[in-house]
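ok trying this again, last paste got cut off
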Amino acid sequence: MAKKLIRIYLWLTGIQNFFFSFMFGVYVLFLLDNGMSYLDANLINMVFMVTIFILEIPTGVFADVLGRKKSVLISYVILIITMIIYFCSQTFLQFAFAEFLFGLGACFHSGAFDALLKDNLDFYKYREDIGKVFSQGNIVRQIAVICGGTSGAVIANYNLRIQWLIGAVGYIISFLMVITLIREENFNGYRITWRNFCTALRKIWKESLANALYNKRVLNIVLISACFMTGVQALNMLWSPMFEQQLGIEYISIAWVGISVFSLLGSWYAKRKLKNDNHFQLLVYAVVITFIFVFFSSLLTGGFLILSTFWLHEIGRGVFNPIHNALLQNSIPSSVRATVTSFSSQISHAGAGLGLILAGIISAEAGIQTCWFISSLIILCSLFFIYRINKS
């Protein structure tokens, strides 16, 4: 039964990432095509970041108290509605509302999906390392994203709106699979009242703050991610308009494949080195590699030269995420691991929101490459917090 559950998990991971990634490579182009500016696009995306920042912990309490399967199903319903609203939207306020719903759906899904798998595997006496399952899921996700993102970029040559309906189809399939194929075998819920919910919420916040704000090592690890996320948001939001301008929309699919492949190479390298190498050293390498190639991307001329260095910076980002996560998890006491991880995610999204504002203002006033130059310096500042970890 455990192997069957793992197969369902991998299929779900592939399906939802394949269909949703149809708009990955053309999201900003879609907003621009509907009259939004770079600043508008970043402000719309910031609604998502703010929603995550505010609601991640409360929705986590919901999943822990009322059930992970319920939380996942609610997330799919919200995300289906989000895709349809995005398909119909044409104004800033409509896009912002859709982005709020997207953040809400992501909050209900975040953590609950993996927790549901872990609880059920424990119930079925699964003895192998759960990390292997998550690693398989990551590989499936990367492959699905490459295929879906490439397909979406090809479709963008003819239509920039239909991708949202395709994303809705993926979430409908995922909803049906979860409700019919997955049971919640190892969950002990209890009768909930508003008072119980508020008590649980206060407890989570107290534990999270106590073990993050007052633990200098953990706090600096959290701040590394926040600083790094501030720097990379300009890259996330502006790569497609940059390469549309430099190379033409027909090259967006090629750019997307390269981004995904080089990020996957970085993740593969990190996986090989996690067991033996020093985490701090690898984190320094990740930041320096990202900085160097973003710096060159901001200075070079010629679309293919810029694209080449942009691809190479993805190696550093592919290394950064698993190394940072491993360092964070190894530094958190087991009793509060989930809550501090949620706190870290909140602070990272706050940094991402700041990065979106800066990227929107700077790119509008000085251009994309100037924005990327400043982003490279912000990324380099992450080294300061890495240095502080060794001092704490």
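PB: full thing came through this time. The radius of gyration is 21 Å.
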